[in-house]
TrEMBL record:
Residues 362-371 have a biased composition (Polar residues). Residues 1-61, 97-126, 331-371 are annotated as: Disordered. This is Uncharacterized protein. The keyword Membrane applies. It comes from the Bacteria. Residues 109-126 have a biased composition (Low complexity). It comes from Streptomyces aurantiacus. Keywords: Membrane, Transmembrane, Transmembrane helix. Residues 1-14, 22-40 have a biased composition (Basic and acidic residues). The chain crosses the membrane at residues 65-82. The keyword Transmembrane applies.
Length: 371
């Protein structure tokens, strides 16, 4: 069809410009007009025919112009027909759903950063987790990878602190979240030294010493999992290098010129049995809500640049109930159940629109609707 279009266009141009042999009648009329012109019987300028000849010239030029424009236009139409995605937007409805989404519906692209509380649980996602794609079938597949999911708000001066000091407090908050929930050493049982030595205020009564004691000798009333994510390397191994992260950080002016920082984050861990030949994949979901404070050293006896923990809550999905050895124990189909069976209500661990409760350490271990 393209070749026919080009051939027809070239033929029209040749036809419009090629000379034609006049008919016998045309020759007789031409001769009569020439004789009348010689005798002076025709007005001057009769040959110019400003309307007829000018119109014919314009028609020829118009045909030539449309031929010049038509060829590249037809070529562009052919290219777009073969690949509609070259057009901006989605004029023909060809979007496959790989873009981002700001809602909780089904999608495959990464979610935008969470800037406000979510209003509903995310929709179900198709797929089955594998060693190559451990987050398949989970809303976490659209979460950010690791620390990229900890998006800090823009700092501004608050209370007794300058913009730069508030920015420092927010960075300290990020360091706490990373070291406690994302650092590979911490996840495999190491002590989160950044949290204990560089972030938390040693002048906060007994907090740092108490956390170190919990890590050394965990128990029901001394559970380090309330603040740290840790797994037993003799039982499970981490699948890949990614922990999926979603949440938000906010801050406001506190009492006596302090900066109060609130964090609410969900961390999703992909795990497999420690046996290197096993292909089973399980996921454990941990949500942490923590209130931190940077107090004014002029009014409170604190360490400048350090944070105090005011409140912390946690919600763990797919881990053994009533086991207090300092490690999370994901339920594996290839292993015997560990701990007591779930006794609490069924909850969706990906529903970030729900409140995870108060600071009680005796929350019931519930059944999860999905992992």
């Amino acid at each position: 069809m393209w070749e026919r279009f080009v051939q027809d266009s070239e033929r029209d141009i040749r036809t419009s410009q090629a000379p034609k042999e006049p008919s016998a009648r045309a020759r007789m009329v031409t001769e009569r007009l020439r004789q009348q012109e010689a005798r002076g019987e025709l007005p001057q300028g009769w040959r110019t025919d400003p309307v007829g000849q000018g119109a014919s010239g314009r028609q020829a030029r118009r045909r030539k112009m449309w031929t010049i424009i038509g060829i590249p236009l037809a070529l562009a139409v052919a290219v777009v027909a073969m690949k509609p995605s070259l057009l901006p937007g989605d004029l023909f409805g060809t979007d496959s759903g790989t873009g981002t989404s700001t809602g909780t519906g089904v999608g495959t692209g990464p979610l935008p950063a969470e800037t406000a509380p979510e209003t509903a649980a995310p929709a179900s996602a198709p797929g089955t987790p594998t060693l190559d794609e451990p987050f398949a079938g989970s809303p976490a597949a659209r979460y950010a990878d690791g620390a990229a999911g900890i998006v800090l708000p823009e700092a501004k001066a608050v209370g007794a602190f300058s913009k730069a000091q508030v920015a420092q407090a927010l960075e300290q908050t990020r360091a706490l979240l990373v070291d406690a929930n994302l650092d590979r050493g911490t996840l495999l049982g190491a002590t989160p030294e950044t949290v204990l030595d560089k972030v938390l205020d040693p002048k906060q009564p007994e907090l740092v010493d108490d956390l170190r004691s919990r890590l050394r000798k965990p128990g029901k009333d001394d559970d380090p999992l309330r603040l740290f994510s840790r797994f037993d390397a003799n039982e499970v191994r981490l699948v890949g290098d990614v922990v999926k992260t979603r949440g938000r950080t906010t801050f406001e002016a506190g009492a006596d010129g302090a900066v109060d920082i609130h964090v609410d984050y969900t961390f999703v861990y992909a795990l497999a049995p420690a046996d290197p030949d096993s292909t089973e994949v399980a996921r454990t979901i941990v949500r942490r809500v923590i209130d931190l404070q940077m107090a004014d050293p002029a009014k409170v006896q604190v360490t400048p640049g350090r944070l105090a923990i005011i409140r912390y809550d946690d919600d763990v999905a797919n881990s053994a109930c009533e086991v207090y050895d300092g490690f999370l124990h994901p339920r594996l189909s290839s292993a015997d159940p560990t701990g007591a069976p779930p006794s609490g209500p069924t909850v969706d661990p990906y529903d970030r629109s729900r409140d995870i409760g108060d600071d009680s350490e005796n929350q019931q271990c519930g059944t999860v609707s999905r992992t």
